[in-house]
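In this supplementary section we document a worked example of the pipeline. Step one takes a protein sequence of length 618 as its only input; no multiple sequence alignment statistics are reported here. Step two produces a three-dimensional model, which step three serialises into structure tokens for compact storage. The input and output of this example are shown verbatim.
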Amino acid sequence: MTETLPAAALPRPEELRLAVFARVLADLAGQGWHFHSSRPGRLRAYAPDTTPRTAQPGYVPPAPLEIKQHLRQGLVAHRDEQLADPLNQRFIQRMERVRYHEGRRVSVRNLLADPQVLASDIEATLRVSEPNRTARLMDVVKPYLQFVSEDLDEHTGLRLLDIWRYCRYTWSLPFNTQPGRRMFYLVRDAARPNHPVMGIAALGSAVVQISCRDEFVGWTLSALRIAPDPVARLQALRAELRRAIDEVYCDDFVSEGLITPTDLLAPTLEVGLRLREAAALLPVANRGQHKLSANLEGDARTDLFRRKRAVTLAELFNALCEFDKAAQLEESHQLESLLSYKDGKKALSIALRSIKKRHVAASMMEITTCGAIPPYGDLLGGKLVAMLMASPQVTTEYRQRYRSLSSVIASRMSGKEFVRQPELVLLGTTSLYHVGSSQYNRIKIPTEKGAISYIGVGRTEGFGHVHLSQHSYNLIQEMLRDDQSEQSYTFAAGVNYKMRSIASALTLLGLQRLQNHASPRLVYALPIATNWRQFLLGMDSEPSWHFAQDTPQQGTDEIIDFWKKRWFVNRAQRPETLAKLHYSSVLPSLASYGDGTTLSKDPKQIAIFFSADHVCPE
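The serialised model returned by step three reads:
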């Protein structure tokens, strides 16, 4: 009989691997995954709606509501784990502690509206005779959009950023900060004391790779094949290659004779080959090396950026050479020619990737958080928050916030400070559930230049980390550090450190397929400029927005008024809406979830917390 060693006797690396393996499987089991072992050493994992029983005769797939409820339970478990963290508990207790502000006793709880009082106010208004009833009803709520900063809230003295964070903890999805550009918003109600929070939103750096979105914009070869204006598209791509070459620092390459000034104006394939050979002689960046400094030209000359500049220039030179070959043909046949052979398609892909990289960084943002705070979800406050993301207030504040912010990487590729002009023309987002999102459906904001709508463009492939808890991620980091496999935050290591860490760990454990959480998201695009596509494709140099940018408050108010007329007035007059508000109570204290109590055990509280579709960044 084989004797099994206790876990404590295992070597440290093996112990950590076993702990990560067990924790990952526990996360999945908690979300309804099924496991099957056909033979020793062979374990298969099935997501809730991908188990073998789907192929059995007579099997009826779960209803959308059932799928949503099932996914919620797993998310709530992770969220409750986050709330129980001592650091988060101290933050929550500090926010809920009663204090004096301008002679009044207040806490963050004063920023949550009482649903029963709101219902009573609506009912009192409904008793007013027509024709004044609708106008009076529209005054029951007075929404406004507030940019979240380090400033203090005038009604409670609390930091606006802390108020946003507290409200975010009331949602089913665990809250994790993301690197890159970020903008947070509160939607407040000026019609009530203390201006309670109606909803919250957040914008983050756009996701680099979403296939269906890239196809929708036109950043793919397949989209190029059916372009209605091939001549203009090719001219824009050629201009992009020229622009990208001009932005690369080349002084050291010229002084060393690697390239000449003439090569920069009329590159050849031989020059591209010479640059690649020079890059191959330089070492590849390793973890912990190449610390960035304030000397941009000095950083550009380091091995890390010297190698990257050489490879980038070689690609751009080669692509421009292929464009020059096609230029010998009739304009109407040039694009078709490039699409007909391997090197031509590669040249087009390089140009598309360059223009995409430029605009993903500066002209697009991802809506990573969007929804109502109870009780406003019952009044379709989530749609209001979603609509306000298209407001001129957002585009104006985005421009002001990032107009002087230089790009860390592009500045070192250029050897000087480099600022990408922040002109926000397209927002993207994903639904939390792949079975549909009522929050974005049927939104259509009328303007003099056409309607603004959320457009469904496809779905993600279901890769991410939402199915893994923070505890699992912490163990993964510990395992990678112990195994000396930790990945680098530095340039050229990849675009998503968390995803790369999880991928490395699961590969190490032979669990690569579990990077796919089997819950794809519906992808939406929100164009907020009339010529958004032409601008993102490089055909137009300046965007043209639906709303005037010099009077942002006016356009924002127009969106709020339209929401009231289109959604709020109708919803507020429904008897079932008022009954639900009367039945509801103010959100329970978040501090209570540090003692093991979870929302998932209280159906009534679940109904309150899940009153809106919430967004999951991927």
